[in-house]
Structures are given as C-alpha cells and as structure tokens.
C-alpha cells in the first residue's frame, strides 16, 4: 500500500513539474517542420520554424522572449537575392496571426469568399501566398501571441510605447538576421494598422542603429503616422469613406448608386479637398447659404439625412456614422469593415454597442491559429495565445511621441533603394482609405520621392485580404512591388541630377 502511494505521489509530482514546465515561457528554442504548398500552379516546398528568440536589455540580460514563425522556401540554395519579409500586425496588442493565416502565409483560415466565418473552423493551403517569391517571418511583440516579458518585474516602459517598441524590435530583427544569415538578402517590412506605425519607425531605426537598409516598406491599412491633420482636415477627410460605405449598402441617391464605386469616389474626393475642408476651416463664420448648399452635398455623398449633417455642422463623427447609416433598418455597421452588420440593444444612441467585424474575425482566427501552431507546426505550450494582448497604457508622449511618418521620410531620403506601397480597403472606417492617400501625399512634402510612393485600394475593409478577390489582387500587388524594388545588377543606390533614383 505504501509502495502504491509512493508511486502515486511520484507520478503526481512528475506530472506537476511537467505541467509547470509547459506553462513556462520558452526563452530561446524552436521546432521546424517541412511542408509544401501550390502557388500559382507550382509546388513550393518549405520549412516552417516556430520558435522563441530573446530580447536583451542594454546590459545583455534577457528581459523578454518573442515568439515567431519563419518560412523558408527549401528548394532555394542561394538566398543572397531572395527577399526576406518581416511581418507585423498592429493593435498595438494584436497578434501576427491576422496576416499570417489571412494574407501572405502558406496557410489560410477557412472563410467564405467575402471573409465571413464558416464551420468547422480550420485552415487550408493558400495558393496566393508570397512564399514562392519571398521568405517570411511573422513576429509577435511582447504580450501578443506567445511573447512575454520574462517576469512581472520588467518595466512595461521597456516595451509599451511608440519609440520603446521600435527600439527593442529593431534589436530583435538584427539578431534574427544575424542568426539566419540574411544580411545579403533584400529586406522588406510589412505592417498592418498600428503595425504601419511600427514599421515606419523601424525603417529609420534599422538604418541608423543597425546599418540595415531596406528595399521596401508595405503599409497595410495605415494609421496617421504622426502626420498633422487636425481640425478641418481630420473632419473632412472621412467623407470619401462615408461615401464608399453608403454605396456598399445602397443608400446613396439613385444617380450615384447606379455608378461604379471607382466612378463615385473621385468626385467625393475632389469635393472634400476643394470645398468641404475650406468650408470647415471657416467654422461658424461660413456663409449661411453656402453652408446650406454644403449640407445638401455632404448628405448626398454620405447617405445621411440633411438634418443629421446640419446638426453636426458638416463634421460627422465616425462612431456616429456607424450607428446612424442603417439606423432605420435596425443595424449598425462595422468600424474596421463597414460591410459587417451588428445588432444593438436599442436603435437609439450615438455609437454601436460592439465591433461587429472584429468579433466575426476572432470567431475565425482564434481556433485556427491555436490548432495550426500547436498541432500542425508542433509548437507545444500551455501558454495562452494572445489574439489581443494587454499593452496599455501605450506611451505616445515625450520621447515616445509618434514621428513615424517623418521617420519613414528620412529613411527614404537616405536610401534611394527604399520604396513604399500603401494598401487600403475602401470600407475601412478606422484607418480609412482617403487618410491613407493623405499620408502618401504628406510623407514627403517636397514631392521629390513621389515616384517611390504608391497606393492601392480594394473593395473590402481593414483586412482586405479576407475577401477572396482582394486576396488575389493584393498579393499580386506585393509581387509586382518586389519586382519594382529589385535593382538591376550593378545598379547603384544614388540620386541623379536629372531627378529620381534610377
């Protein structure tokens, strides 16, 4: 009997220790699997490495461990000319699973052609992945995915701020490139949402601190990047997005609704820049008759009533628009993708009860990423995968102020090879497409680098790649961007007196 009890206790202790070890953060370890995917009709073999790499402080002491998944095409022997994509999502507490299992990776979540959840949850091969033309690493900053600080005593200020985030991630990237021997490779940063703030700052930090020069930066659904647009500009710039969302839901006047979206939006954009923003600048001193005319036009383009537009003095808050656009039908529209509908407790009110699109996306991605990492890639841990981790308060003041648009301009000016592509969904109400265009116009006020800045629009929302048609187009746009940003053999990185860098 004593012997049986001893065996039971021994087993209990052993199992407890094993369980505790599984809950322990991995500091520096990885597991590699092999697979293949058919892209554009050709079989692409690859290795997938899921692992952790430390973050060190200024004294060389580990303070965090970042989780990553790294894909390498395995039939390539010479990587000196093969691009390396370094991919970040945003939040700033959002995991990298969105672009990983939604956009550029070799596997993709199971959704319908418009991006809505289907069951059973899971994933499938992604025939539109860019793995045929580039290797990719998906990086999880602290408190996203399986990434954590090593203990609670580490100051959050080491990670949770605009500049702090850029600083430690640049160090991490430099170490990763060293370990994987990717210094000769053309390198690209791609970021979504707050990830665009992140990669815009990283472009300059990598150059100035690590002497690492990039070929390209891709901004997917970009933030404001710290570029000034307060007052009338901020209030006016959202009207083209209002028009896009209203067109999608078929609430514009018949003459506009009968036109294609790409025929409607240029008209609204011209009105916004040439009439609405100057009128908003006049505030309460705008001529009464002129204001009446503008109220009528804003109502015409936004799908809202003249009464609502007048009550808001031509400047409708986006949160109110999401609630108001389909109020008479009993629905609100999504913030990040206004194709999605939500149902509130009551139709009255000034903002939706919840984000209809975000709950739909988490519905899809949470089971898929957990199954994929733990079962398919064989990464074993009992840590919770943070789809949306706690990163508040996020410091944006003082040394952590957001100057990332200017950072990106400086990086481009210093590096004639560096090009930027912006990708936006027309129905994104959080980082709207017209403000993304505004970013492009104002990153370089001199206009001397505008041939290296490009914008692409898609008929979906914040995660444009969830819609099948846009998944195909947006990945092809990345392929063309790689071609554009690959210098010819022997072509120097220099400016010419005739203008341009090529």
From TrEMBL:
<dbReference type="GO" id="GO:0004185">
    <property type="term" value="F:serine-type carboxypeptidase activity"/>
</dbReference>
<dbReference type="InterPro" id="IPR029058">
    <property type="entry name" value="AB_hydrolase_fold"/>
</dbReference>
<keyword id="KW-0732">Signal</keyword>
<feature type="signal peptide">
    <location>
        <begin position="1"/>
        <end position="20"/>
    </location>
</feature>
<dbReference type="GO" id="GO:0006508">
    <property type="term" value="P:proteolysis"/>
</dbReference>
<keyword id="KW-0378">Hydrolase</keyword>
<keyword id="KW-0325">Glycoprotein</keyword>
<dbReference type="InterPro" id="IPR001563">
    <property type="entry name" value="Peptidase_S10"/>
</dbReference>
<keyword id="KW-0645">Protease</keyword>
<protein>
    <submittedName>
        <fullName>Carboxypeptidase</fullName>
    </submittedName>
</protein>
<keyword id="KW-0121">Carboxypeptidase</keyword>
<dbReference type="Pfam" id="PF00450">
    <property type="entry name" value="Peptidase_S10"/>
</dbReference>
């Amino acid at each position: 009997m004593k012997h049986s009890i001893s065996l039971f206790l021994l087993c209990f202790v052993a199992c407890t220790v094993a369980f505790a070890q599984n809950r322990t953060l991995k500091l520096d370890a990885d597991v590699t699997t092999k697979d293949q995917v058919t892209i554009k009709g050709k079989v692409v073999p690859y290795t997938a490495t899921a692992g952790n790499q430390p973050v060190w402080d200024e004294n060389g002491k580990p303070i965090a461990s970042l989780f990553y998944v790294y894909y390498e095409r395995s039939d390539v022997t010479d990587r000196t000319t093969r691009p390396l994509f370094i991919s970040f999502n945003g939040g700033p507490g959002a995991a990298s699973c969105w672009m990983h299992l939604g956009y550029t990776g070799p596997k993709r979540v199971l959704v319908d052609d418009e991006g809505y959840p289907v069951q059973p949850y899971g994933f499938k091969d992604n025939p539109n992945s860019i793995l045929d033309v580039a290797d990719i690493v998906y990086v999880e900053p602290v408190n996203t995915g399986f990434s954590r600080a090593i203990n609670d005593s580490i100051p959050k200020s080491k990670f949770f701020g605009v500049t702090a985030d850029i600083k430690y991630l640049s160090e991490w990237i430099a170490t990763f490139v060293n370990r994987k021997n990717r210094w000769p490779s053309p390198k690209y940063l791609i970021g979504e949402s707050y990830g665009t703030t992140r990669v815009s700052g990283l472009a300059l930090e990598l150059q100035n601190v690590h002497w690492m020069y990039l070929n390209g930066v891709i901004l997917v659904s970009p933030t404001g990047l710290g570029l000034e647009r307060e007052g009338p500009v901020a209030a006016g710039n959202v009207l083209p997005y209002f028009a896009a969302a209203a067109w999608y839901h078929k609430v514009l006047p018949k003459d506009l609704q009968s036109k294609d979206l790409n025929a409607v939006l240029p008209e609204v954009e011209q009105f916004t820049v040439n009439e609405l923003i100057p009128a908003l600048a006049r505030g309460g001193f705008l001529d009464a008759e002129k204001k009446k005319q503008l109220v009528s036009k804003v109502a015409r383009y936004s799908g809202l009533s003249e009464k609502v537009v007048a009550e808001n003095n031509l400047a409708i808050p986006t949160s109110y628009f999401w609630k108001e656009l389909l109020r008479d039908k009993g629905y609100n529209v999504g913030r990040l993708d206004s194709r999605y509908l939500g149902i509130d407790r009551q139709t009255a009110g000034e903002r939706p009860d919840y984000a209809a699109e975000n709950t739909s996306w988490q519905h899809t991605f949470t089971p898929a990423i957990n199954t994929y990492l733990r079962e398919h890639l064989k990464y074993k841990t009992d840590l919770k995968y943070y789809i949306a981790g706690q990163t508040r308060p996020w410091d944006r003041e003082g040394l952590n102020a957001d100057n990332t648009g200017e950072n990106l301009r400086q990086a481009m000016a210093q590096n004639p090879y560096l090009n930027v592509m912006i990708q936006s969904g027309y129905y994104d109400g959080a980082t709207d497409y017209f403000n993304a265009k505004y970013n492009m116009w104002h990153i370089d006020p001199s206009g001397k680098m505008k041939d290296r800045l490009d914008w692409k629009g898609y008929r979906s929302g914040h995660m444009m790649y969830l819609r099948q048609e846009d998944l195909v187009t947006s990945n092809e746009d990345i392929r063309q961007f790689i071609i554009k940003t690959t210098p010819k053999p022997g072509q120097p990185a220099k400016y010419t007196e005739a203008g341009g860098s090529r």
